[in-house]
Design goal:
This protein has helices at residues 9-30, 33-39, 48-76, 78-98, 102-114, 118-128, 131-185, 206-211, 213-243, 251-275, 279-299, 304-332, 338-387, 405-408, 413-418, 446-453; strands spanning 397-402, 423-429, 434-439. The chain has 456 residues and is mainly alpha-helical. It has a three-stranded antiparallel beta sheet. The longest helix is centred in the middle third of the chain and has 55 residues, at 131-185.
Length: 456
C-alpha cells in the first residue's frame, strides 16, 4: 500500500480518540433508557408523564444547541467547545444523581443535553484528517455510536441493579470526565479550524436544505424513529417487569440478546440495499416492521417469549434504519451541502427524542402500556405513508477536491467537471479553493476528472 493511502499515526490517534469521546458521551445518554421507567418510579413526584419527559428531556437542549455550538467552534476553536460540552454533560449527571425528585432528574437530563458537541467533534475530525481518509474516520465515529448504544442497553440495567439509578447517573459523569481527559491529553490540536462543507454547517446552505423535499422526508423520518425509541422505552421495561414478570435486575440479557440477534439479521439487508441499489425498498420494509411489531408487543405482553421476540424485531427495524438513513442523507444532500443537511437531520433527531418521551409518558398515563405501543405504531405508519412517496435516491458519493488558487477562480471549471462521466453535481467554492462533487463511483472516469482538476 502506498504511504499516502495509509492514515498517519496522528490521523489514527485523532479518529480513534474522537470516536471514544463520542462513544463515552452517547453511552452516558443511552444507559438511562432501559432503567428510568423501572427505577424512576420510586422518586418523589414521579408520574408516567414526568418519567417520559425525563427519558427524552436531553433531546430538547441538544436540538436547540447542536448547530449553534458547531458554529461557535468555528470562532473559538473545537476543543474549548467540546470540553465545555462534556463539562455540562458531567454536571448534568451529577444533578440527576443527587436528585430526590423526578423534577430534579429532568433538570439533570436537560443540562446533559446542553452539552451538544456532535457538530464540533465532526468538524474537528475534518480538521485533523486528510480528504482521502475523512470518510474512514467518520465511519469509525458512526460505529462507535452504534457500539455505545449496544453496550448501554446492557450496562444500564447491570449498573442499576448494583447501584440504583443514582449509580447510573454517576457513571455518566465519570464517562464524561474520561472524555474530557482524552480531548485534553490524547486528541491532537489542529493548527487551524477549517471550513468544511461536508462536515460543518454553512449558513448559505440552510434554505436550500429546508426547501429540499427529499431531505424534509428524511428529517421527519429520523424524528419519528427517535420519538418511537423514547416512547417505547417508557413502555418496554415496564412490560417486561409488570406484564411478563421479568425482574428489572434481569432485563440486561433481553437487550443483549435482542441487539446481537438484530445486528446479524440487519447486515444482509444493508448489503442488499447498497449493492443492489434498493435502499428505498429496505427503508420502507424496516419502517413497516417497526409499525407491525408494536401491536405484537401489546398483544404479547403477558408472555415473556413473545415479548422478547417482538423486542428483537423492534431492534432489527430500528438498527437497520439507524444505519441506513445517514447513507440515504449523503446520497440526497446537494454537493457542498452535506454538513448543513446533517446538522438539520441531527437537530430533528434530538427534537424527535424530546417529543417521543413526552408523548410516551402522556399516553401511558392515560391509556396504559397498550396505548404507548399503538401510538408508536401510528407514528411509524405516518412515516411509511410519507416515505413511500420518495424517489429512489441517486447512488452517488460525496467528494471534496482541493484546487489550486488559479483553478478555483476559473469560472468554466464547474462546467468542465460536470462533463466528466459519472459526475452528477459539482460546485466550486473559491474561498476554500475546493470543489464539491457528487459522483457515481461505478461510472466515474477518474483519470478524466484528475486531468480537469489538476493544475495546468
Amino acid at each position: 500500500m502506498h504511504q499516502a493511502d495509509r492514515m498517519t499515526s496522528a490521523e489514527q490517534r485523532a479518529a480513534g480518540s474522537l470516536a471514544a469521546v463520542f462513544a463515552f458521551r452517547m453511552l452516558g445518554l443511552f444507559m438511562v433508557l432501559p432503567v428510568l421507567a423501572t427505577y424512576g418510579g420510586s422518586l418523589q413526584g414521579a408520574t408516567p408523564l414526568l418519567i417520559g419527559v425525563a427519558i427524552g428531556a436531553y433531546g430538547l437542549t441538544q436540538a436547540c444547541l447542536q448547530i449553534p455550538f458547531g458554529m461557535l467552534s468555528d470562532r473559538i476553536g473545537r476543543k474549548p467547545v467540546i470540553i465545555g460540552g462534556l463539562l455540562l454533560f458531567a454536571l448534568g449527571g451529577l444533578v440527576a444523581a443527587q436528585a430526590e425528585t423526578m423534577q430534579g432528574v429532568i433538570i439533570g437530563r436537560v443540562i446533559q443535553g446542553a452539552g451538544a458537541i456532535a457538530a464540533a467533534v465532526m468538524a474537528l475530525v475534518a480538521d485533523l484528517t486528510r480528504e482521502q481518509h475523512r470518510t474512514k474516520a467518520m465511519a469509525m465515529i458512526g460505529m462507535s455510536i452504534g457500539l455505545s448504544f449496544a453496550v448501554a442497553m446492557v450496562a444500564g440495567p447491570v449498573i442499576a441493579a448494583r447501584a440504583g439509578l443514582q449509580g447510573v447517573f454517576y457513571s455518566t459523569t465519570a464517562l464524561a470526565l474520561i472524555g474530557m481527559l482524552l480531548v485534553i491529553w490524547v486528541v491532537p490540536t489542529p493548527q487551524r479550524a477549517l471550513r468544511h462543507r461536508e462536515a460543518g454547517v454553512v449558513r448559505s446552505a440552510f434554505l436550500p436544505s429546508l426547501r429540499n423535499k427529499d431531505l424534509l422526508r428524511l428529517n421527519y423520518g429520523i424524528a419519528v424513529l427517535h420519538a418511537i425509541l423514547m416512547a417505547s422505552f417508557v413502555a418496554i421495561p415496564l412490560a417486561l417487569q409488570e406484564q411478563a414478570g421479568l425482574p428489572r435486575e434481569e432485563h440486561w440479557w433481553v437487550y443483549l440478546a435482542a441487539l446481537l440477534l438484530s445486528f446479524f439479521a440487519m447486515v444482509p439487508f444493508i448489503i442488499y440495499a447498497e449493492r443492489q441499489r434498493q435502499i428505498k425498498r429496505v427503508v420502507l420494509g424496516a419502517i413497516a416492521l417497526l409499525a407491525l411489531v408494536q401491536p405484537i408487543m401489546w398483544l404479547g405482553m403477558g408472555s415473556l417469549s413473545w415479548l422478547v421476540a417482538a423486542i428483537v424485531l423492534f431492534f432489527v427495524g430500528f438498527n437497520l434504519l439507524e444505519a441506513t438513513l445517514p447513507s440515504l442523507l449523503s446520497k440526497i444532500a446537494p454537493a457542498g451541502g452535506k454538513g448543513t443537511a446533517m446538522g438539520l437531520y441531527s437537530t430533528c433527531q434530538f427534537a424527535g427524542a424530546a417529543v417521543g418521551g413526552l408523548i410516551g409518558g402522556a399516553v401511558f398515563g392515560v391509556w396504559g402500556l397498550g396505548g404507548v405501543f399503538l401510538c408508536c405504531a401510528l407514528l411509524a405508519v405516518s412515516w411509511w405513508a410519507i416515505g413511500v412517496t420518495m424517489s429512489e435516491p441517486p447512488y452517488v458519493t460525496s467528494y471534496r477536491l482541493p484546487l489550486s488558487l488559479a483553478l478555483a477562480g476559473d469560472e468554466t471549471l464547474p462546467r468542465r467537471i460536470l462533463a466528466v462521466a459519472g459526475v452528477a453535481e459539482a460546485i466550486v467554492v473559491a474561498e476554500e479553493a475546493a470543489a464539491y462533487l457528487k459522483v457515481d463511483t461505478q461510472v466515474l472516469d477518474r483519470e478524466a476528472l484528475d486531468r480537469v482538476v489538476s493544475p495546468a
